[in-house]
Design goal:
single chain, 31% helix, 7-stranded mixed beta sheet, disordered C terminus
């Protein structure tokens, strides 16, 4: 149960920093129905690193978030724990975190979960992790669903600085009795349907405008990796409001709502229609399967240089140094200054990004850490995801869609 210092820290934060966040991002609260008293489970969309604090500001009492604390600065870890957050292992199953959730709810706390498991790369819904409905049925408490608008555009996960605009929360509550009457499939459908969103397109249709004082394109090379003009990879950079391909010199202007206009060429040169970041992101992601089929051991189709790789061992990191990560001939290969590692892509699990600092993944019972040192990690996340999805039965793909 939340301790006295959790309450003290949260109340101090609410009176100072959270109010500052509301003013900074233009947060507006839209509540449909009354919030229940704890214990309950709150599930929300997740696009912004500040989501836990903005959503938590709805409550006078600390919301005990299951959170990925790994990968953040030590002082931020202590800060999150002082507010009542408890850790889970990102990209992996975590029985200890599940048991902690059950323990907290049974002790009378309100628990906050993000069913998608991670922040959205493009502001659209991600597939929810399995088991959410089963957990709710087991807990037997009220459910609060929070769907956000503007969270993503206020601070895309690939960006280096927050932006400003209107960020709203649509809050809906469901009683324990109502939840108890629903089957697990219907409860899963309720959660998925209530939290479904496309923040970029919704903002455009509703006329909500955002501003990016540090530049709308800053950090965009973390999500964009293939040029729609020359079709070459790993040459996309962002500075100010401009996106540039260093391979061919093509340049685009992007605003804070992520709409894109060619700056020095015709749209006719594009491989596909690109009106916004989502179009570009979808195109490069859709080209991955064909691109990867053409890769060979001697001529890999995906490559990242200046990558650092290490294996977790004996409580520390066994470093393979700096080198090149490449995919070709059905293998994922790292050739480093201190060693070489070969991975079977289908056996890679939980390849996740930790706050643009480093990535981690599991392979054959071992845990690995990759640092792209400012390079693009997203292409590897989506490439490995495409391999995993291609091996799923067609019935599973349909159910996931």
């Amino acid at each position: 149960m939340a301790t006295w210092y959790h309450h003290l820290t949260w109340q101090a934060l609410r009176r100072t920093w959270v109010n500052h966040l509301h003013d900074k991002f233009g947060v507006g609260i839209e509540i449909h129905g009354l919030l229940p008293r704890p214990p309950f489970v709150l599930m929300a969309t997740h696009s912004n690193a500040y989501d836990p604090y903005v959503i938590g500001s709805l409550l006078d009492e600390p919301l005990r978030y299951m959170a990925n604390i790994e990968g953040v600065a030590p002082w931020k870890t202590l800060f999150a724990e002082a507010l009542g957050a408890y850790a889970r292992r990102k990209g992996q199953s975590d029985i200890a975190a599940l048991r902690k959730t059950i323990e907290l709810v049974h002790s009378g706390d309100a628990v906050g979960l993000f069913p998608e498991g991670d922040r959205s790369w493009d502001g659209r819904s991600e597939k929810a992790r399995p088991g959410s409905a089963r957990l709710l049925k087991r807990l037997g408490v009220d459910l609060v669903l929070v769907r956000q608008k503007g969270s993503y555009l206020s601070f895309p996960r690939w960006a280096g600085h927050p932006r400003s605009g209107h960020w709203s929360l649509d809050v809906r509550s469901f009683g324990a009795d109502e939840i108890g009457r629903l089957s697990e499939p219907l409860l899963d459908a309720l959660i998925t349907g209530s939290l479904r969103r496309d923040e970029v397109r919704e903002a455009a249709s509703e006329g909500r405008r955002f501003e990016a004082p540090h530049g709308a394109a800053e950090g965009v090379g973390r999500i964009l990796w293939r040029c729609p003009v020359c079709r070459k990879t790993d040459g996309i950079t962002g500075e100010g409001d401009d996106i540039t391909c260093v391979r061919c010199g093509a340049r685009w202007h992007m605003d804070a709502n992520l709409f894109i206009e060619p700056a020095n060429h015709s749209r006719a040169l594009h491989a596909t229609q690109i009106a916004d970041l989502l179009d570009w992101h979808d195109w490069q992601r859709d080209t991955l399967p064909d691109l990867m089929v053409g890769g060979t051991e001697k001529r890999p189709c995906l490559t990242s240089h200046n990558v650092s790789l290490a294996r977790r061992a004996h409580g520390g990191l066994e470093r393979l140094g700096h080198g090149t990560l490449s995919y070709g001939g059905g293998e994922l290969v790292f050739q480093g200054s201190r060693g070489r590692a070969v991975f079977e892509p289908a056996a890679v699990r939980g390849f996740v990004d930790n706050f643009n600092r480093y990535c981690e993944f599991s392979h054959r019972g071992e845990r690995w850490r990759a640092n792209f040192n400012g390079g693009n990690a997203a292409k590897w996340i989506f490439a490995l995801r495409s391999i995993e999805e291609s091996r799923q039965p067609s019935s599973s793909k349909g159910a996931a869609a």
